[in-house]
Amino acid sequence: MGRVRNTMWRWLAGLAGCLIMTGHLSAAEVAERPEVRVVFDVSGSMRHNDPDQLAGKALELLVDLVPDGATAGIWTFGERVRNPLPPASVNAEWRERARAMAPQLVAYEQFTDIESAVYQAAMAEPNGVPIHLVLLTDGVIDLPAWRGGKPAIDASSREALLDELGPRLADEGVVIHAIAFSDEADLDLVERLAQMTGGLSASVAAPDALMGAFLDIVDRIYPSDRVPVTDRGFLVEPGLRGFTALLFRGEEPATLVAPDGRRYTAEAPPEGAEWRSEPHYDLIQVPDPQAGQWRLEGGAGPNSRITVESPLHLQMSGVSSTLYLGFAVPVEAWFLREGEEVEADALPAHLRLTAELRDESGSAQSAVVLEQQEARFVGRLPAPVLAGKAQLAVRAEGQGFRRQRVQPVNVLPAVAARHDEANRRVLLNAEHPLLDRHNTRLHGQLQGAHLAAEPMAERRWSIALPELETALSVPLVLRGEVTLDGETHELQLPRLVLFPSVATAIDQVDAGPALEVVRFHEELTPLREPRATSESPLPQPLEQAVRSIQQLPRVAQERWREWQPVLTRPLEEAMGDRRGAGALLAGGLLLLLVLLVAWRMAIRHRHAGSREEPHV
C-alpha cells in the first residue's frame, strides 16, 4: 500500500510542477482569478501511505500551480487544524515560505477532523473573489474519544458537514474540489461535498488517475484556450503570443516539428523557448511561434494538451460541474478580443462551432453544431446517457483558425436511491436542483406491483416496501416523471436490487462511488456472481425434459450421418411417386420444425436461468 501511495505522491509532485503553465497562460485578469486554498491531510495514516515523506516535495511543486498575483493559502489537519501559510498574494516570498513548511507535512497526528479543516479553511477572511478549496485526504472522519462517545461523535460530525456546513458554503459561493487517494477514504463524503458546492471529486487508485484528477481541477479553476491536436498535429494561427505544450511521455523522447520542417528537442529547443524535460512529461513554452501546422513526435500520451496565449479568446457560458442523466445541456459560446466581445463581422471566416460531451476514454457521447445568432453561438447538447466523469468541449474551426475550451464535469442520476432495510422502505433524494415534490412524480415496480413514492420533504420521497424474503435478491424498478417549463418527460433512473448477495450491503449503495461509468440505457452487467446451488429451480421431471430438449440439436448433428442413408434412400425411391414424395417432404419439414422449436426453447431457458436483473 505504501509503495503505491509513494508512487502517487511522485506523480502529484511532477504534476504540480508541470502546471506552472497555468499561471502564464490564464486569460483572466489577476483580479478575477479565484483564490485557492489547499488543505493537506496529515493524519496518522499518512505515515503508512507516504513512508518516504514525499508530501514535502509535492507541496514544493504544488505552490507553482498558483499564478503570480493571485491569492492562495495552505492548511494542514489531523486532530487539529493549522494554517501555516495564510491566504496572501503569491510572489517569490510567498513561494519561499510555502516550500519551507514541508516539515509540517510529516508532523503526523492520530485523528482526522475533516469537518473542522473544511470549516476553518473555507471560513477564513474572504478576499472578495471566488474561493476554491482543494481537499486532499486518505481517510475518514475519526475524532478523539474525549470529544464524545464513538462512533456516534464521528457520525455526528459527518452529518453536520454534509447537512449544515456544505450547504452553507454552497450558498456563499465556496467551491470544494476533493480528492480521495486511498481506498480507505470516505469517497461518498468527498463526492457529496464537491457536488453540492459545484466542485469536482475523484477517487484515485493509480498515479495516472491522480494526475488526471488534478488536471481536471486546474482546468476548472483556471480555464484556458487550447488548440486541438489532430493526427499528432496542431495549427498555430498568425498573431499568437505563444503556446505551451504539456506532453506526457511516450516510449520515445518528444520532438516538435515546426511548419518549416525544423525539428526541436529538449537538447535543441526553439529560439527563446523554455523546455523542461521531467521523468513523466515535457513542458515546452514557445513564445512568438511560427504560424502554420506543427507536428508532434514521440511523447504525446493521454492528457497531453496545447494551450495558447492569444488576444482572441474563446468563451463559454458557465457550465455546471455536475450534469444529470436525461437532461439536455444548454451551451453558449462567443469570442473576446482584449476583453471586448467580438462582433459577428470580425470573426474568423467560415467559422463553425460544435459542442461535445466526451467520456473518460475521450469518445463522444453526444454532439451538436451550435447555431450562430449574431456574435453568439448557441445550442442544446443532447442529454447524457452515461454516468461518470466526462468533459464538455466547445470546438471552433474556421479558415486558418482552431480553438477549443474543455470543462471537466461529473454526470449523475437525477434521483439517488437508498434501501433503508431497518424500516422496510426505499429513500429517494433529488440530486438535480430543479426537482421537487411539486414537479416530480416517482414510483417503483416490485414483482409486478406498483409502489407509490410519498413525499417526505421538499426534495425527498419514501417508498414503503411489503414484507420480503431477505434471502432473495429482488430488483426494484424505479420510474419517474418531471414537468419543467410546461413539458413533461420521463426520468432516467437506475434499478435498485434489494438484499443483493454481494459483499457490499445495499444500505451502502449511496455511499459507493457515484462517478463510476454505468450504462443506464443498456442492460447493466450484473455486479454479483450467480448464486451457486445444487438445487434446480424446476421440478425434477420438468428439469429432465428440459435437459433432453437442450441436447436435441447436438444429438441430431451426431445422428445425421447415421440417418442420412435411411432418409435419402426412400426420398430417391419416392421421387417417382409424386404423392409419396409430397408426404415425405411434409414429414421432413415437420421434423425440422420440431427441432427448431426445441432449439429455441433450450436457448431461452439457458438465458433465463443465467439472467439477473441489473442493479445499482
TrEMBL record:
Spans through the membrane: 580-599
Stretch forming the signal peptide: 1-27
Keyword set, alphabetical order: Membrane, Signal, Transmembrane, Transmembrane helix
UniProt cross-references to SUPFAM superfamilies, sorted A to Z: vWA-like
Keyword Transferase: no
The keyword Transmembrane is assigned to this record: yes
Gene3D superfamilies: von Willebrand factor, type A domain
InterPro entries: vWFA_dom_sf
Protein's name in the database: VWFA domain-containing protein
Phylogenetic lineage: Bacteria, Pseudomonadati, Pseudomonadota, Gammaproteobacteria, Oceanospirillales
